[in-house]
Structure formats: structure tokens, C-alpha cells
């Protein structure tokens, strides 16, 4: 009659193997260069940082600057300068007086520097993919949503001369 069952004997043999193997593993790890752990950690951090950067949202600076300048001109009543930033279409007014009329109907208390969002979402990875494939990197149109008493957005498009111009603006229900 065997007191220790077959499985128990296997477990004892397995544990004895690890008791013998652990000092060998420690001995092997101690032979590695001292900078290996630091280098491994640096590579892991670089990979995590690259992953984060690829997934992060890219906020196009040129269209945002045009939209912010447009809103700033409208707020102080400089309609001629604001009209210079538009595509001069029915949505923005073909003339300065049309722009003034449209802005009186649509402009609410907007916080110039406070941007809630840009649309469409474009990640840095998407821009990199487009660039590598030889496609246009900037997406057009881009809608910039401003904070204020009421939601206010400005849509900016790239023109044939490669400039960014305001194609429409409006306040809307939240």
C-alpha cells in the first residue's frame, strides 16, 4: 500500500526539478550584461510611447488658426477682415454686408480660444499611413466646434490654392 499517491509523487519530482533549476536560472541571469534590463525597459517604454502617439488625435493647426481668427474678427465686428478668410459663398456671405447679417443671426457668445472638438477625428497613425501611401494627409473639410453660451462651429476647407478658408459657420442646438 502506497501512502503517497501517484500524483503526489509527480508533484514532488516537479518541485525538486524547480528547486534545482532556479539556482541555475539565477546564475544564467547574473551573466547578462548589467544594461540589458535597462535597455529592455527603454525599448518597452519606446514601444508604448509610439503606440500612444499613433493613437492620439491630431489637431490640424492651420484650419484651427483660420477658424480662431475668423471668430475673433466676428466678435469685434471686423467683418471685412473676416470676409477675407471666407470662401465667399451663400453660407458665409458673398459680400461683407451679407457676412455681417449672417453673423448677427448665428454668432452667440463664443469663447475664442476654447475649442471643444474638431471633426473628423484623425489620429497621428492615420496621417502617417496616408503619407506613406502617397495620399493627401490633411482631410477636408474640417469642422471646429467652439465653446460658448451655445455650440458654435466653423467649417474650414482647403482651396485649390492650398489655403484654408471658412466655408460655413453656425450656432446650433447642443
Automatic annotation (TrEMBL):
Keywords: Membrane, Transmembrane, Transmembrane helix. The chain crosses the membrane at residues 32-54. This is Uncharacterized protein. It comes from Cupriavidus basilensis. The lineage of its organism: Bacteria, Pseudomonadati, Pseudomonadota, Betaproteobacteria, Burkholderiales.
